[in-house]
Amino acid sequence: MAVVQPSVSRLSNTLRNARTAWFEPRNAQGPLLNLELGGYGEYTHLNHTTRLALDAWTRLHGESVFPRDEDNEFLTPAALDLSGPPGKLRALVPFATSYPVGRGLGMYGQRELARHVSTALDQSLVKCAQVAGRRPFGNRRTTIEGRDAILWDDENLPHIIAASGCRKLRILALYKSQDMRTRMQSLLAYHFNRPDLAASGIGEHKVVPLNEHVEVLFQSAPELLAHGEHHDQRPTLVRQLHGLDAPEHTRLLALCETEYDPKTWARQRRASKKTDSTVVNPDTLDAKHRVNGELARHRVLAQFLTLYKPGRRNPRKKERELNTDLELLGLELQGHHRGHMAVADLSRVAGLVHPRLTKALASGPNGLKEPLVHVGLHLRQQRGERHVGTDEPKLMWTLVALVPHGPYWRTLAYLPAEHAGPGTWRDYATANHQFRARPLPEGRRRDDLLPRHIDHALYDLGRHAGRSQGYILYVSGAEARSIWPLLANKNLGKRPDAAGLINGRPALPGFTLAPDQRPRAVIRVTSGSDNVARPALIERLRHDPEHDETCTEEGKLATGLFQMEDAEQTFILCNLPHQFTGGARYARAGESYTRWGSSDPKEQAETWYSHTATEITVLHHPADQALLTYGLTAARLCDHALHWEHRTQYPAPIHLGIQMDKNHPEYRRTVDNPDTGDEAET
């Protein structure tokens, strides 16, 4: 099986500063040579491995790529210059350079590439059959102008809050500027249906009720929130805040102002890494992560908000008739997506789950009728700092469980022990602030005791499961497949022994436990990986009554759940990026032509979207129940995002674990380094 991942590379007219170059050999049947380079400017050179391979190629084929002085590792000026008519050697534009062309192939380009690859390789594409369309999902979160009215206006909100482990929520609104104070005041007044507070204002240093079970306290904290080197003063500044002495059973949340310009900070980061640079890395001055950790030590969960920047207005959006003060306030906040998502994130960290989830999981003939706990396992290994040779990697892993309590849901998270010893299950909010308040633990994926610790946590879950009849375990496949044998594709079909082992290793999470304590089902979910098949061609079956036969016609878009023809335990959840369906001017660019067919420079600079996919593989399930029930349940937990209007990449329990990880002050992006052990995929 060949996995083809489409991408677009930009060609440069010089090798100077390039990191990759391609060489086309004389023989049309020969491979395209991929050359790796290093250095900058006139010191650009081939890396050592590429030089050895290129020397061997030249001796074997008598084909010189470019003139090079054998005594000098740097490329000659003549070799660096690729201007003029295009030749067989091409250099790729470095990633640090801005492009006039955006990212992505678009729907049409992906379809045509799939056809071309199938024809050129004389290989049929992987086929999947739809088993559930868009309608069977249903009951997803919906908002009106960014406001989750179903949650905040629900008459059962007190029971929803009680199921999360508290009785009342207190929001500390911390700001630096008056503009942000006004914006926060409008946001909270809008989401909690109190337009009167936006008009009359909310007093300073006073606890003001937003409803019977949610209250807010505004206060200015310019020194605490300001970026700078005064990190040693922040603990004292946090202790001086009002409202930390909340009554018992009151959960503390914080909405904090911050400043962040991605482009400016990225330029400063690059400049700070240059030799003899006087530019300070902005990350060392950033107040956000320090404030986040300090507030967590006082049981406060912080969410940060940047100043509002009006976005581009959607010309296709029709104006609505406004009749109430709340609708007028929503119009004032139109386009403030960051503010709306900040409020939604506050409800996430508070552990609130609307009971519509029960109906979403149980609906239809293939719905899950039994009360089961849904557990998500998330793992991530974070490398140490590059310039610190002794810095050990960090290992973040957690289990998040959605536990049914009658019609309501309680969210739990497992917090591994800081040192040797057992961990503990906590309410999601409690686990979050305890997790943020301590450093990430050291560790590696290949640690022998890691599977045993996870199995112990699953065993301990039984004390919190209530009347549930078991649990389903969802595992993030990309991060965990090297740990348990049956998570790797090459071991699919193997059967563990009576002890739940394969070759002396636990076959799946929870399999070292007694049979009645093992997961009811284990589902591997993979998204955003190069190994996941991407939807390209869509064919719809149609009955032709005239000839009384079934024919096919080409479709363009799909959002259903598909089952692979030759692998019935594997499902593909076909997704449309929410930007594609958003209605912006260039949202559907590339739907009917490729980038080479576009003559609009503004359209070329935009991102062109195409289908994405989430792979759902049911690795273990009861023999007397259908695979589709569990595949559809995982798909519904992706589609039914708890605090987001669109689908999430992973089912809700895994997604909550990922967000918990990302909210840690020491979290660093794009540094996950999977081990390449014997079970790694090829």
Plain-language structure description:
Helices cover about 25% and strands about 20% of the residues. With about 675 residues, the chain is an alpha+beta fold. A hairpin with a 6-residue loop joins β3 (about 35-40) and β4. It is globular, with a radius of gyration of 28 Å. The model is unreliable at about 670-680 (pLDDT under 50).
Low-confidence stretches: 670-682
Please state the overall shape, judged from the principal axes of the Cα atoms.
globular
What is the alpha-carbon Rg in Å?
28 Å
- Order of strands, main sheet, comes to 6-22-23-24-19-16-12-13-14-15
Summarize the amount of helix as a percent range.
Answer: 25-40%
Distance between the termini: 11 Å
Number of helices: 21
- Count the beta strands: 24
User: By helix and strand content, what is the structural category?
Assistant: alpha+beta
What's the mean pLDDT score? 87
- Portion of residues in beta strands equals 15-25%
User: What characterizes the major β-sheet?
Assistant: 10 strands, mixed
How does the SSE layout of this entry go?
Layout: E1 11-12, E2 20-23, E3 33-38, E4 45-46, H1 48-61, H2 77-80, E5 89-92, H3 106-120, E6 128-132, H4 149-152, H5 157-163, E7 168-175, H6 178-191, H7 195-200, E8 207-211, E9 214-220, H8 222-225, H9 234-239, E10 250-257, H10 262-272, H11 282-285, H12 287-296, E11 300-305, H13 325-332, H14 337-349, H15 356-362, E12 373-382, E13 394-405, E14 408-415, E15 424-427, H16 428-436, H17 450-460, E16 471-476, H18 477-480, E17 501-502, E18 505-506, E19 521-527, E20 538-544, E21 549-555, E22 561-564, E23 570-575, H19 601-605, E24 612-620, H20 627-639, H21 652-662
Parallel strand pairs: 7-9, 7-10, 10-11, 12-16, 16-19
Antiparallel strand pairs: 1-5, 2-3, 2-5, 3-4, 6-22, 8-9, 12-13, 13-14, 14-15, 17-18, 19-24, 20-21, 22-23, 23-24
Helix pairs in contact: 12-16
